[in-house]
Design goal:
- The chain has 646 residues and is of the alpha+beta class.
- Among the domains are: 4-97, no CATH class; 109-198, no CATH class; 426-542, Beta Barrel (OB fold (Dihydrolipoamide Acetyltransferase, E2P)); 563-639, no CATH class.
- Strands 20, 21, 22, 23, 24, 25, 26 and 27 form an 8-stranded mixed beta sheet that branches.
- Helix 8 (210-229) crosses helix 17.
- 44% of the residues are buried.
Protein backbone atom coordinates (compact mmCIF):
# COMPACT_ATOMS: atom_id res chain seq x y z
CA UNK A 1 0.00 0.00 0.00
CA UNK A 2 1.69 3.13 -1.30
CA UNK A 3 -0.32 5.91 0.33
CA UNK A 4 1.70 7.12 3.35
CA UNK A 5 -0.50 10.22 3.54
CA UNK A 6 -3.60 8.14 4.30
CA UNK A 7 -1.74 6.03 6.86
CA UNK A 8 -0.38 9.16 8.55
CA UNK A 9 -3.81 10.80 8.85
CA UNK A 10 -4.86 10.34 12.49
CA UNK A 11 -8.40 10.08 13.80
CA UNK A 12 -8.14 13.66 15.08
CA UNK A 13 -6.94 14.85 11.69
CA UNK A 14 -9.77 13.02 9.97
CA UNK A 15 -12.26 14.65 12.36
CA UNK A 16 -10.95 18.05 11.28
CA UNK A 17 -11.50 17.16 7.62
CA UNK A 18 -14.97 15.71 8.29
CA UNK A 19 -16.67 15.53 11.70
CA UNK A 20 -16.56 13.35 14.79
CA UNK A 21 -19.83 11.56 14.00
CA UNK A 22 -18.72 10.33 10.57
CA UNK A 23 -15.33 9.22 11.91
CA UNK A 24 -16.87 7.28 14.81
CA UNK A 25 -19.30 5.57 12.44
CA UNK A 26 -16.52 4.58 10.04
CA UNK A 27 -14.33 3.23 12.85
CA UNK A 28 -17.24 1.20 14.20
CA UNK A 29 -18.22 -0.25 10.82
CA UNK A 30 -14.67 -1.14 9.77
CA UNK A 31 -13.98 -2.77 13.15
CA UNK A 32 -17.16 -4.85 12.71
CA UNK A 33 -16.06 -6.01 9.27
CA UNK A 34 -18.65 -3.87 7.48
CA UNK A 35 -16.20 -1.60 5.69
CA UNK A 36 -15.82 -1.24 1.91
CA UNK A 37 -13.87 -3.50 -0.42
CA UNK A 38 -10.64 -1.76 -1.41
CA UNK A 39 -8.57 -1.83 -4.58
CA UNK A 40 -5.37 0.14 -5.14
CA UNK A 41 -3.87 0.89 -8.55
CA UNK A 42 -0.15 1.12 -9.20
CA UNK A 43 -0.34 4.91 -9.44
CA UNK A 44 -1.80 5.15 -5.90
CA UNK A 45 -5.47 5.53 -6.85
CA UNK A 46 -7.64 3.92 -4.16
CA UNK A 47 -11.13 2.63 -4.94
CA UNK A 48 -13.68 1.69 -2.27
CA UNK A 49 -16.84 -0.28 -3.11
CA UNK A 50 -19.63 -0.35 -0.55
CA UNK A 51 -22.41 -2.87 0.01
CA UNK A 52 -25.03 -0.32 -1.07
CA UNK A 53 -23.37 -0.01 -4.50
CA UNK A 54 -21.60 3.28 -3.81
CA UNK A 55 -18.14 3.62 -5.36
CA UNK A 56 -15.57 6.12 -4.07
CA UNK A 57 -12.27 6.81 -5.87
CA UNK A 58 -9.35 8.80 -4.49
CA UNK A 59 -6.72 9.88 -7.00
CA UNK A 60 -2.97 9.69 -6.34
CA UNK A 61 -1.68 12.37 -3.98
CA UNK A 62 -5.16 13.78 -3.42
CA UNK A 63 -6.68 14.39 0.05
CA UNK A 64 -9.93 12.57 0.89
CA UNK A 65 -12.09 15.64 0.32
CA UNK A 66 -11.17 15.55 -3.38
CA UNK A 67 -12.25 11.92 -3.90
CA UNK A 68 -15.08 11.23 -6.33
CA UNK A 69 -18.12 9.45 -4.92
CA UNK A 70 -21.30 8.17 -6.54
CA UNK A 71 -23.40 9.13 -3.51
CA UNK A 72 -25.32 12.44 -3.73
CA UNK A 73 -23.43 14.09 -0.84
CA UNK A 74 -20.83 16.77 -1.51
CA UNK A 75 -17.68 17.26 0.54
CA UNK A 76 -16.55 14.75 3.14
CA UNK A 77 -19.32 12.14 3.07
CA UNK A 78 -19.30 8.95 5.14
CA UNK A 79 -17.95 6.98 2.17
CA UNK A 80 -14.86 9.18 1.80
CA UNK A 81 -14.20 8.88 5.53
CA UNK A 82 -14.70 5.10 5.45
CA UNK A 83 -12.22 4.81 2.57
CA UNK A 84 -9.48 6.33 4.74
CA UNK A 85 -10.34 4.27 7.83
CA UNK A 86 -10.51 1.04 5.82
CA UNK A 87 -7.22 1.80 4.06
CA UNK A 88 -5.43 2.38 7.37
CA UNK A 89 -6.91 -0.81 8.83
CA UNK A 90 -5.83 -2.81 5.78
CA UNK A 91 -2.28 -1.45 6.07
CA UNK A 92 -2.12 -2.62 9.69
CA UNK A 93 -3.61 -6.03 8.81
CA UNK A 94 -1.02 -6.58 6.07
CA UNK A 95 1.60 -6.54 8.81
CA UNK A 96 5.38 -6.34 8.44
CA UNK A 97 5.23 -6.70 4.67
CA UNK A 98 4.08 -3.10 4.53
CA UNK A 99 6.30 -0.13 5.40
CA UNK A 100 5.58 1.22 8.86
CA UNK A 101 3.23 4.16 9.09
CA UNK A 102 5.08 7.44 9.51
CA UNK A 103 5.83 8.17 13.15
CA UNK A 104 4.20 11.21 14.75
CA UNK A 105 7.28 13.41 14.87
CA UNK A 106 7.75 17.15 14.56
CA UNK A 107 8.22 18.48 11.04
CA UNK A 108 8.49 21.88 9.36
CA UNK A 109 5.86 23.04 6.83
CA UNK A 110 8.48 25.47 5.55
CA UNK A 111 9.83 22.51 3.56
CA UNK A 112 6.65 22.38 1.44
CA UNK A 113 6.72 23.73 -2.12
CA UNK A 114 5.09 27.06 -1.37
CA UNK A 115 5.81 28.47 -4.83
CA UNK A 116 3.92 25.65 -6.54
CA UNK A 117 1.04 26.01 -4.08
CA UNK A 118 0.79 29.76 -4.71
CA UNK A 119 0.94 29.22 -8.46
CA UNK A 120 -2.16 27.03 -8.16
CA UNK A 121 -4.23 29.57 -6.21
CA UNK A 122 -7.36 30.92 -7.84
CA UNK A 123 -7.64 34.56 -8.81
CA UNK A 124 -9.46 35.67 -5.64
CA UNK A 125 -7.10 33.78 -3.31
CA UNK A 126 -4.02 35.11 -5.13
CA UNK A 127 -5.35 38.67 -4.85
CA UNK A 128 -6.02 38.15 -1.14
CA UNK A 129 -2.45 36.90 -0.66
CA UNK A 130 -1.05 39.99 -2.39
CA UNK A 131 -3.26 42.27 -0.29
CA UNK A 132 -2.27 40.66 3.00
CA UNK A 133 1.43 40.77 2.14
CA UNK A 134 1.20 44.39 1.01
CA UNK A 135 -0.26 45.44 4.34
CA UNK A 136 1.94 43.14 6.41
CA UNK A 137 0.71 40.42 8.75
CA UNK A 138 1.98 38.87 11.98
CA UNK A 139 1.86 35.06 12.19
CA UNK A 140 2.28 33.00 15.36
CA UNK A 141 3.79 29.53 14.87
CA UNK A 142 3.46 26.28 16.79
CA UNK A 143 5.73 23.37 15.93
CA UNK A 144 5.16 19.67 16.45
CA UNK A 145 3.63 16.64 14.75
CA UNK A 146 0.69 18.83 13.68
CA UNK A 147 2.23 22.29 13.16
CA UNK A 148 -0.08 25.30 13.26
CA UNK A 149 0.08 28.92 12.10
CA UNK A 150 -2.15 31.48 13.81
CA UNK A 151 -3.08 34.50 11.72
CA UNK A 152 -5.20 37.37 13.07
CA UNK A 153 -8.43 35.97 11.61
CA UNK A 154 -7.62 32.36 10.70
CA UNK A 155 -5.71 29.32 11.95
CA UNK A 156 -3.96 26.84 9.63
CA UNK A 157 -3.01 23.31 10.75
CA UNK A 158 -0.88 20.89 8.73
CA UNK A 159 -2.41 17.49 9.44
CA UNK A 160 -0.05 15.24 7.44
CA UNK A 161 3.71 15.69 6.97
CA UNK A 162 4.91 16.87 3.55
CA UNK A 163 1.38 16.99 2.10
CA UNK A 164 0.07 20.50 1.46
CA UNK A 165 -3.30 19.12 0.42
CA UNK A 166 -3.91 18.22 4.07
CA UNK A 167 -3.46 21.79 5.32
CA UNK A 168 -6.73 22.77 7.01
CA UNK A 169 -7.78 26.39 7.50
CA UNK A 170 -10.75 27.46 9.61
CA UNK A 171 -11.77 30.13 7.10
CA UNK A 172 -14.75 29.53 4.82
CA UNK A 173 -12.51 28.05 2.09
CA UNK A 174 -11.24 25.35 4.46
CA UNK A 175 -7.91 25.11 2.63
CA UNK A 176 -6.24 25.96 -0.66
CA UNK A 177 -6.42 29.61 0.43
CA UNK A 178 -4.15 32.61 0.95
CA UNK A 179 -3.86 31.75 4.65
CA UNK A 180 -2.18 28.41 3.85
CA UNK A 181 0.28 30.20 1.56
CA UNK A 182 1.10 32.68 4.32
CA UNK A 183 1.54 29.85 6.83
CA UNK A 184 4.08 28.10 4.59
CA UNK A 185 5.96 31.37 4.06
CA UNK A 186 5.96 32.04 7.79
CA UNK A 187 7.43 28.65 8.72
CA UNK A 188 10.09 29.00 6.04
CA UNK A 189 11.12 32.51 7.08
CA UNK A 190 10.82 32.16 10.87
CA UNK A 191 14.05 30.25 11.45
CA UNK A 192 12.66 28.66 14.60
CA UNK A 193 11.05 31.83 16.00
CA UNK A 194 7.59 31.59 17.57
CA UNK A 195 6.30 34.63 15.68
CA UNK A 196 7.17 36.45 12.47
CA UNK A 197 5.86 39.38 10.49
CA UNK A 198 5.51 38.93 6.74
CA UNK A 199 5.35 41.69 4.14
CA UNK A 200 4.38 45.23 5.05
CA UNK A 201 6.94 47.76 6.06
CA UNK A 202 8.38 48.95 9.33
CA UNK A 203 8.12 47.18 12.69
CA UNK A 204 7.17 48.96 15.89
CA UNK A 205 9.51 51.82 16.70
CA UNK A 206 10.53 52.48 13.09
CA UNK A 207 10.18 55.90 11.52
CA UNK A 208 6.61 56.63 10.47
CA UNK A 209 5.71 57.19 6.82
CA UNK A 210 3.15 59.67 5.45
CA UNK A 211 0.23 57.30 6.01
CA UNK A 212 1.15 56.76 9.66
CA UNK A 213 1.67 60.50 10.09
CA UNK A 214 -1.86 61.08 8.78
CA UNK A 215 -3.22 58.57 11.27
CA UNK A 216 -1.19 60.09 14.09
CA UNK A 217 -2.55 63.53 13.29
CA UNK A 218 -6.13 62.23 13.24
CA UNK A 219 -5.70 60.30 16.51
CA UNK A 220 -4.05 63.29 18.20
CA UNK A 221 -6.97 65.46 17.12
CA UNK A 222 -9.45 63.08 18.78
CA UNK A 223 -7.50 63.06 22.05
CA UNK A 224 -6.93 66.82 21.95
CA UNK A 225 -10.68 67.32 21.58
CA UNK A 226 -11.36 65.15 24.60
CA UNK A 227 -8.78 67.01 26.68
CA UNK A 228 -10.26 70.35 25.68
CA UNK A 229 -14.01 69.69 25.84
CA UNK A 230 -14.22 66.39 27.74
CA UNK A 231 -16.60 63.49 27.38
CA UNK A 232 -19.16 65.62 29.21
CA UNK A 233 -19.55 67.85 26.14
CA UNK A 234 -21.40 65.02 24.35
CA UNK A 235 -20.72 62.95 21.22
CA UNK A 236 -21.52 65.83 18.87
CA UNK A 237 -18.42 67.71 20.03
CA UNK A 238 -16.20 64.82 18.93
CA UNK A 239 -18.04 63.37 15.92
CA UNK A 240 -16.03 65.25 13.29
CA UNK A 241 -12.67 64.13 14.71
CA UNK A 242 -13.83 60.52 15.07
CA UNK A 243 -15.21 60.43 11.51
CA UNK A 244 -11.93 61.80 10.17
CA UNK A 245 -9.95 59.18 12.11
CA UNK A 246 -12.25 56.44 10.84
CA UNK A 247 -11.86 57.51 7.22
CA UNK A 248 -8.08 57.76 7.43
CA UNK A 249 -7.92 54.33 9.11
CA UNK A 250 -10.19 52.79 6.47
CA UNK A 251 -8.01 54.14 3.66
CA UNK A 252 -4.91 52.81 5.39
CA UNK A 253 -6.52 49.47 6.27
CA UNK A 254 -5.65 49.98 9.96
CA UNK A 255 -8.00 47.43 11.49
CA UNK A 256 -6.82 47.84 15.09
CA UNK A 257 -7.47 51.59 14.91
CA UNK A 258 -10.96 50.97 13.52
CA UNK A 259 -11.78 48.62 16.40
CA UNK A 260 -10.55 51.11 19.01
CA UNK A 261 -12.38 54.02 17.35
CA UNK A 262 -15.64 52.06 17.35
CA UNK A 263 -15.30 51.33 21.07
CA UNK A 264 -14.48 54.96 21.85
CA UNK A 265 -17.53 56.17 19.91
CA UNK A 266 -19.57 53.63 21.88
CA UNK A 267 -18.29 55.03 25.17
CA UNK A 268 -19.24 58.58 24.18
CA UNK A 269 -22.71 57.39 23.19
CA UNK A 270 -23.07 55.47 26.46
CA UNK A 271 -22.28 58.58 28.49
CA UNK A 272 -24.73 60.67 26.50
CA UNK A 273 -27.42 58.03 27.01
CA UNK A 274 -26.66 57.73 30.74
CA UNK A 275 -25.85 54.06 30.20
CA UNK A 276 -23.91 52.17 32.84
CA UNK A 277 -21.55 50.83 30.16
CA UNK A 278 -19.74 54.19 30.28
CA UNK A 279 -16.46 54.02 32.20
CA UNK A 280 -13.95 56.87 32.36
CA UNK A 281 -11.15 54.32 32.84
CA UNK A 282 -12.13 52.64 29.56
CA UNK A 283 -12.04 56.00 27.78
CA UNK A 284 -8.51 56.54 29.11
CA UNK A 285 -7.46 53.07 27.90
CA UNK A 286 -8.92 53.71 24.44
CA UNK A 287 -7.33 57.16 24.11
CA UNK A 288 -4.00 55.70 25.24
CA UNK A 289 -4.40 52.86 22.75
CA UNK A 290 -4.97 55.26 19.86
CA UNK A 291 -1.92 57.31 20.83
CA UNK A 292 0.21 54.19 21.21
CA UNK A 293 -0.84 52.43 18.02
CA UNK A 294 -0.22 55.40 15.72
CA UNK A 295 3.29 55.60 17.18
CA UNK A 296 3.94 51.85 17.15
CA UNK A 297 4.33 50.88 13.49
CA UNK A 298 2.20 48.86 11.06
CA UNK A 299 1.87 45.79 13.26
CA UNK A 300 0.30 47.89 16.01
CA UNK A 301 -2.06 49.51 13.49
CA UNK A 302 -3.30 46.16 12.22
CA UNK A 303 -2.55 47.12 8.62
CA UNK A 304 -3.61 44.34 6.26
CA UNK A 305 -5.72 42.47 8.81
CA UNK A 306 -9.22 41.70 7.52
CA UNK A 307 -11.80 43.36 9.75
CA UNK A 308 -13.95 40.23 9.50
CA UNK A 309 -13.48 36.76 7.98
CA UNK A 310 -16.08 34.13 7.09
CA UNK A 311 -15.45 30.79 8.79
CA UNK A 312 -16.02 27.31 7.43
CA UNK A 313 -18.20 24.66 9.06
CA UNK A 314 -17.04 24.75 12.67
CA UNK A 315 -17.72 23.14 16.02
CA UNK A 316 -17.32 25.62 18.88
CA UNK A 317 -17.31 24.36 22.47
CA UNK A 318 -18.13 26.67 25.38
CA UNK A 319 -15.41 27.26 27.96
CA UNK A 320 -17.72 29.28 30.18
CA UNK A 321 -19.62 32.54 30.36
CA UNK A 322 -19.68 35.84 32.22
CA UNK A 323 -22.65 38.01 33.13
CA UNK A 324 -21.87 41.64 34.01
CA UNK A 325 -24.30 44.17 35.49
CA UNK A 326 -24.57 47.39 33.47
CA UNK A 327 -26.76 49.73 35.49
CA UNK A 328 -30.30 48.37 35.17
CA UNK A 329 -29.18 46.10 32.32
CA UNK A 330 -26.53 43.43 31.86
CA UNK A 331 -24.14 42.01 29.29
CA UNK A 332 -23.44 38.35 28.56
CA UNK A 333 -20.28 36.95 26.99
CA UNK A 334 -19.62 33.28 26.17
CA UNK A 335 -16.12 31.94 25.41
CA UNK A 336 -16.26 29.46 22.51
CA UNK A 337 -13.27 27.38 21.39
CA UNK A 338 -12.61 25.53 18.17
CA UNK A 339 -11.19 22.36 19.71
CA UNK A 340 -9.43 21.49 16.44
CA UNK A 341 -7.44 24.69 15.94
CA UNK A 342 -7.55 26.22 19.43
CA UNK A 343 -9.10 29.44 18.10
CA UNK A 344 -11.04 31.27 20.82
CA UNK A 345 -14.06 33.43 20.01
CA UNK A 346 -16.51 35.53 22.02
CA UNK A 347 -20.27 35.55 21.48
CA UNK A 348 -21.83 38.42 23.39
CA UNK A 349 -24.90 40.59 23.74
CA UNK A 350 -26.30 43.37 25.92
CA UNK A 351 -29.71 43.02 27.56
CA UNK A 352 -32.11 45.55 29.06
CA UNK A 353 -35.06 44.83 31.37
CA UNK A 354 -38.62 45.32 30.23
CA UNK A 355 -40.68 48.10 31.76
CA UNK A 356 -42.71 45.76 33.95
CA UNK A 357 -40.13 42.96 34.30
CA UNK A 358 -39.93 41.71 37.88
CA UNK A 359 -36.97 39.28 37.84
CA UNK A 360 -34.59 40.57 35.18
CA UNK A 361 -31.51 38.87 36.67
CA UNK A 362 -33.30 35.54 36.93
CA UNK A 363 -34.28 35.76 33.26
CA UNK A 364 -30.74 36.33 31.95
CA UNK A 365 -29.78 32.64 31.45
CA UNK A 366 -32.85 32.18 29.26
CA UNK A 367 -32.23 35.26 27.10
CA UNK A 368 -31.10 34.66 23.51
CA UNK A 369 -27.63 35.42 22.16
CA UNK A 370 -28.85 34.48 18.70
CA UNK A 371 -31.62 32.55 17.02
CA UNK A 372 -32.26 29.48 19.18
CA UNK A 373 -29.14 30.10 21.30
CA UNK A 374 -29.94 30.87 24.92
CA UNK A 375 -27.22 32.24 27.20
CA UNK A 376 -27.51 29.16 29.43
CA UNK A 377 -27.55 26.61 26.61
CA UNK A 378 -24.65 28.21 24.75
CA UNK A 379 -22.60 28.86 27.87
CA UNK A 380 -22.88 25.23 28.97
CA UNK A 381 -22.90 23.52 25.57
CA UNK A 382 -21.41 23.66 22.08
CA UNK A 383 -22.57 24.90 18.70
CA UNK A 384 -22.17 23.53 15.19
CA UNK A 385 -22.30 26.32 12.63
CA UNK A 386 -21.65 26.97 8.97
CA UNK A 387 -22.61 30.66 9.00
CA UNK A 388 -20.06 32.16 11.40
CA UNK A 389 -17.95 35.27 10.89
CA UNK A 390 -14.87 36.05 12.95
CA UNK A 391 -13.87 39.64 13.65
CA UNK A 392 -10.22 40.61 14.06
CA UNK A 393 -10.63 40.97 17.84
CA UNK A 394 -12.23 37.54 18.23
CA UNK A 395 -15.87 38.66 18.29
CA UNK A 396 -18.14 36.00 16.76
CA UNK A 397 -21.13 36.86 14.59
CA UNK A 398 -23.63 34.22 13.48
CA UNK A 399 -25.59 34.74 10.29
CA UNK A 400 -28.28 32.89 8.40
CA UNK A 401 -26.91 31.57 5.14
CA UNK A 402 -29.14 30.16 2.42
CA UNK A 403 -27.88 26.64 3.13
CA UNK A 404 -26.26 27.19 6.52
CA UNK A 405 -27.49 26.87 10.05
CA UNK A 406 -26.35 26.85 13.67
CA UNK A 407 -27.24 23.98 16.01
CA UNK A 408 -26.90 23.90 19.81
CA UNK A 409 -25.70 20.68 21.49
CA UNK A 410 -24.60 19.68 25.01
CA UNK A 411 -20.91 19.29 25.85
CA UNK A 412 -18.98 16.92 28.10
CA UNK A 413 -17.76 17.91 31.55
CA UNK A 414 -14.15 17.99 30.36
CA UNK A 415 -12.76 19.29 27.09
CA UNK A 416 -9.53 18.68 25.17
CA UNK A 417 -8.03 21.70 23.41
CA UNK A 418 -4.60 22.28 21.84
CA UNK A 419 -1.86 24.54 23.19
CA UNK A 420 -1.50 27.41 23.84
CA UNK A 421 -5.18 27.51 24.84
CA UNK A 422 -4.44 24.46 26.98
CA UNK A 423 -1.94 25.46 29.68
CA UNK A 424 0.13 22.78 31.40
CA UNK A 425 2.12 24.79 33.91
CA UNK A 426 2.09 28.16 35.63
CA UNK A 427 5.70 29.32 34.98
CA UNK A 428 5.37 29.20 31.18
CA UNK A 429 2.20 31.31 31.28
CA UNK A 430 3.85 33.80 33.64
CA UNK A 431 6.76 34.14 31.21
CA UNK A 432 4.44 34.60 28.25
CA UNK A 433 2.46 37.33 30.01
CA UNK A 434 5.60 39.10 31.23
CA UNK A 435 7.12 39.14 27.73
CA UNK A 436 4.08 40.70 26.05
CA UNK A 437 4.24 44.25 24.72
CA UNK A 438 1.98 46.79 26.45
CA UNK A 439 -1.76 46.39 25.94
CA UNK A 440 -1.94 49.45 23.69
CA UNK A 441 0.34 47.70 21.16
CA UNK A 442 -0.99 44.15 21.35
CA UNK A 443 -3.60 42.90 18.87
CA UNK A 444 -7.07 43.38 20.31
CA UNK A 445 -8.60 40.22 21.75
CA UNK A 446 -12.01 39.93 23.42
CA UNK A 447 -10.71 36.93 25.39
CA UNK A 448 -7.06 37.77 25.92
CA UNK A 449 -4.93 35.43 28.07
CA UNK A 450 -7.75 32.88 28.36
CA UNK A 451 -6.56 29.35 29.18
CA UNK A 452 -7.79 25.91 30.20
CA UNK A 453 -5.86 24.43 33.15
CA UNK A 454 -5.80 20.83 34.42
CA UNK A 455 -6.23 20.60 38.19
CA UNK A 456 -4.74 18.02 40.52
CA UNK A 457 -5.97 19.33 43.87
CA UNK A 458 -7.73 22.26 45.52
CA UNK A 459 -5.43 23.80 48.13
CA UNK A 460 -8.06 25.97 49.82
CA UNK A 461 -10.48 28.85 49.41
CA UNK A 462 -11.34 32.07 51.25
CA UNK A 463 -13.68 35.07 51.16
CA UNK A 464 -12.63 38.75 51.31
CA UNK A 465 -15.77 40.53 52.56
CA UNK A 466 -14.44 44.07 52.07
CA UNK A 467 -13.64 43.45 48.41
CA UNK A 468 -16.60 41.08 47.94
CA UNK A 469 -14.19 38.61 46.34
CA UNK A 470 -13.98 34.81 46.48
CA UNK A 471 -10.45 33.43 46.37
CA UNK A 472 -8.95 29.95 46.03
CA UNK A 473 -5.78 28.15 44.99
CA UNK A 474 -5.34 24.92 43.03
CA UNK A 475 -2.34 22.74 42.29
CA UNK A 476 -1.66 21.73 38.69
CA UNK A 477 -0.55 18.13 37.98
CA UNK A 478 3.03 17.08 37.18
CA UNK A 479 4.56 19.90 39.25
CA UNK A 480 2.80 22.48 37.09
CA UNK A 481 2.69 25.00 39.94
CA UNK A 482 -0.01 26.80 41.91
CA UNK A 483 -2.80 28.68 40.16
CA UNK A 484 -4.73 31.27 42.17
CA UNK A 485 -8.43 31.84 41.51
CA UNK A 486 -10.34 35.05 42.22
CA UNK A 487 -13.86 36.17 41.40
CA UNK A 488 -15.57 39.37 42.54
CA UNK A 489 -19.30 39.47 43.24
CA UNK A 490 -21.50 40.78 40.43
CA UNK A 491 -25.24 41.39 40.89
CA UNK A 492 -25.94 39.95 37.42
CA UNK A 493 -24.69 36.55 38.66
CA UNK A 494 -25.79 36.38 42.32
CA UNK A 495 -25.17 32.63 42.70
CA UNK A 496 -21.73 32.49 41.04
CA UNK A 497 -19.63 32.66 44.19
CA UNK A 498 -21.68 29.98 45.93
CA UNK A 499 -21.30 27.73 42.87
CA UNK A 500 -17.52 28.23 42.92
CA UNK A 501 -17.39 27.46 46.62
CA UNK A 502 -19.46 24.32 46.09
CA UNK A 503 -17.30 23.12 43.20
CA UNK A 504 -14.05 23.67 45.11
CA UNK A 505 -15.41 21.99 48.24
CA UNK A 506 -16.00 18.76 46.27
CA UNK A 507 -19.80 18.92 46.28
CA UNK A 508 -20.01 17.60 42.70
CA UNK A 509 -16.79 15.58 42.62
CA UNK A 510 -13.12 16.55 42.39
CA UNK A 511 -12.09 19.58 40.33
CA UNK A 512 -10.42 18.44 37.09
CA UNK A 513 -10.27 21.58 34.94
CA UNK A 514 -10.57 25.34 35.30
CA UNK A 515 -10.97 27.76 32.39
CA UNK A 516 -10.78 31.55 32.36
CA UNK A 517 -8.65 34.63 31.68
CA UNK A 518 -5.48 35.07 33.72
CA UNK A 519 -3.41 37.98 34.97
CA UNK A 520 -0.31 38.53 37.10
CA UNK A 521 -0.90 39.90 40.61
CA UNK A 522 1.99 40.29 43.05
CA UNK A 523 4.03 37.80 41.04
CA UNK A 524 1.34 35.09 41.11
CA UNK A 525 -0.85 33.85 38.27
CA UNK A 526 -4.51 34.60 39.00
CA UNK A 527 -7.42 33.15 37.01
CA UNK A 528 -10.99 34.44 36.88
CA UNK A 529 -12.82 31.09 36.57
CA UNK A 530 -15.51 31.12 33.87
CA UNK A 531 -16.02 27.37 34.19
CA UNK A 532 -15.00 24.54 36.50
CA UNK A 533 -15.08 20.90 35.37
CA UNK A 534 -16.00 18.43 38.10
CA UNK A 535 -18.24 15.40 37.52
CA UNK A 536 -20.24 17.89 35.47
CA UNK A 537 -19.56 21.28 33.95
CA UNK A 538 -20.10 24.18 36.36
CA UNK A 539 -20.46 27.63 34.79
CA UNK A 540 -20.68 29.83 37.92
CA UNK A 541 -22.53 32.75 36.34
CA UNK A 542 -25.25 30.43 35.03
CA UNK A 543 -25.63 28.42 38.23
CA UNK A 544 -28.99 28.16 39.95
CA UNK A 545 -29.16 28.32 43.77
CA UNK A 546 -28.76 24.85 45.27
CA UNK A 547 -29.75 25.85 48.80
CA UNK A 548 -26.82 23.98 50.34
CA UNK A 549 -24.61 26.90 51.32
CA UNK A 550 -20.84 26.56 51.36
CA UNK A 551 -19.13 28.34 54.26
CA UNK A 552 -15.83 29.96 53.31
CA UNK A 553 -13.22 31.27 55.78
CA UNK A 554 -12.52 35.02 55.61
CA UNK A 555 -9.45 36.39 53.83
CA UNK A 556 -7.54 39.64 54.46
CA UNK A 557 -8.98 42.64 52.63
CA UNK A 558 -7.13 43.89 49.58
CA UNK A 559 -4.91 46.92 50.02
CA UNK A 560 -5.71 50.45 48.85
CA UNK A 561 -5.29 51.62 45.28
CA UNK A 562 -1.68 52.15 44.18
CA UNK A 563 -0.14 55.48 43.22
CA UNK A 564 -0.15 54.34 39.59
CA UNK A 565 -3.90 53.73 39.89
CA UNK A 566 -4.28 57.28 41.21
CA UNK A 567 -2.27 58.62 38.28
CA UNK A 568 -4.49 56.72 35.85
CA UNK A 569 -7.61 58.10 37.55
CA UNK A 570 -6.24 61.64 37.23
CA UNK A 571 -5.60 61.16 33.50
CA UNK A 572 -9.05 59.61 33.01
CA UNK A 573 -10.64 62.62 34.69
CA UNK A 574 -8.81 64.93 32.27
CA UNK A 575 -10.51 63.21 29.32
CA UNK A 576 -13.86 63.07 31.07
CA UNK A 577 -14.14 66.62 32.38
CA UNK A 578 -12.34 68.72 29.77
CA UNK A 579 -9.64 71.34 30.30
CA UNK A 580 -11.53 73.99 32.27
CA UNK A 581 -13.16 71.66 34.77
CA UNK A 582 -10.02 69.56 35.11
CA UNK A 583 -7.78 72.56 35.82
CA UNK A 584 -9.28 73.07 39.26
CA UNK A 585 -8.77 69.39 40.10
CA UNK A 586 -5.20 69.53 38.82
CA UNK A 587 -4.37 72.52 40.98
CA UNK A 588 -5.92 70.92 44.06
CA UNK A 589 -4.47 67.43 43.98
CA UNK A 590 -2.11 67.05 41.06
CA UNK A 591 0.98 68.52 42.68
CA UNK A 592 0.48 66.37 45.79
CA UNK A 593 0.25 63.21 43.67
CA UNK A 594 3.42 64.15 41.77
CA UNK A 595 5.25 64.65 45.07
CA UNK A 596 4.06 61.32 46.45
CA UNK A 597 5.08 59.51 43.24
CA UNK A 598 8.58 60.99 43.42
CA UNK A 599 8.93 60.12 47.11
CA UNK A 600 7.76 56.54 46.51
CA UNK A 601 10.41 55.81 43.87
CA UNK A 602 8.51 56.72 40.69
CA UNK A 603 10.58 59.68 39.41
CA UNK A 604 9.91 59.00 35.71
CA UNK A 605 6.16 58.78 36.29
CA UNK A 606 6.25 61.92 38.42
CA UNK A 607 8.15 63.85 35.73
CA UNK A 608 5.73 62.86 32.96
CA UNK A 609 2.68 63.59 35.07
CA UNK A 610 4.12 66.97 36.11
CA UNK A 611 4.73 67.92 32.46
CA UNK A 612 1.16 67.00 31.58
CA UNK A 613 -0.28 68.99 34.49
CA UNK A 614 1.73 72.03 33.43
CA UNK A 615 0.35 71.72 29.90
CA UNK A 616 -3.19 71.22 31.20
CA UNK A 617 -2.99 74.51 33.09
CA UNK A 618 -1.61 76.34 30.04
CA UNK A 619 -3.81 78.33 27.62
CA UNK A 620 -5.96 76.22 25.24
CA UNK A 621 -4.53 74.90 22.00
CA UNK A 622 -1.57 73.03 23.46
CA UNK A 623 -0.43 69.82 21.75
CA UNK A 624 -1.49 66.47 23.30
CA UNK A 625 2.11 65.21 23.45
CA UNK A 626 2.51 65.72 27.24
CA UNK A 627 -0.69 63.75 27.81
CA UNK A 628 0.46 61.03 25.40
CA UNK A 629 3.81 60.65 27.17
CA UNK A 630 2.15 60.45 30.58
CA UNK A 631 -0.71 58.15 29.52
CA UNK A 632 1.48 55.70 27.59
CA UNK A 633 4.00 55.54 30.43
CA UNK A 634 1.39 54.97 33.15
CA UNK A 635 -0.38 52.32 31.04
CA UNK A 636 2.89 50.47 30.44
CA UNK A 637 3.85 50.63 34.13
CA UNK A 638 0.45 49.36 35.27
CA UNK A 639 0.61 46.57 32.70
CA UNK A 640 4.00 45.46 34.05
CA UNK A 641 5.60 47.59 36.74
CA UNK A 642 9.01 46.02 36.07
CA UNK A 643 12.10 47.21 37.95
CA UNK A 644 12.25 50.38 39.98
CA UNK A 645 12.26 53.60 37.97
CA UNK A 646 15.54 55.35 37.52
Amino acid sequence: MARPDLRALTDDGLVQLANAGLVKRALREVAAGQGPALAEAEDGTVEARFADGTVTRLGPGRPPGEASCTCPASGMCRHRVALVVAYRAAAVADGPAQPAAPAAVAWDPGSLDGAAFEAGLGGAAAAELRRLLAGGITVGLERGAVPAARLPTATVRFLVPDAVGYARCDCAAGGGCAHVALAIRAFRAAGGAAEIRLGGAAPAGAEAGPAEEGLAEAADRVVAGLLEAGVVSGPEAHDAALVRLRRVAERRGATQILLAEADLAGQLAAYAGRHAAYDAAVVLALATELLGRVRGGEAALGVGQPYETAMGRTRLVSLGARLLARGRGASARVALADTDTGALLALERDFAPGEAEVDFVGSLPGRLLGSGLSVSGTGQGQILTSVARRRADGLLALGRGAQGRTALLPRDARVTVPAPLAARDVPSILRRLAERPPAFLRPRDRLEAFHVFPVDAVLGQAWAPGAQTWQAAVELPEAGGTLHLARAYDPAAPHALDALAGACSGRWGPVRQVAGPVRIADGALVCDPWSVSVDRLVVPDLAAPDGAGHPIPPAPDLGPATLLDEAAALLANALHAGRRAFAANARAGGADLVARLAAAGHPATAARLSAFLAAALAPPGAEPDPFARAALWVAAMRDDSGPAEG
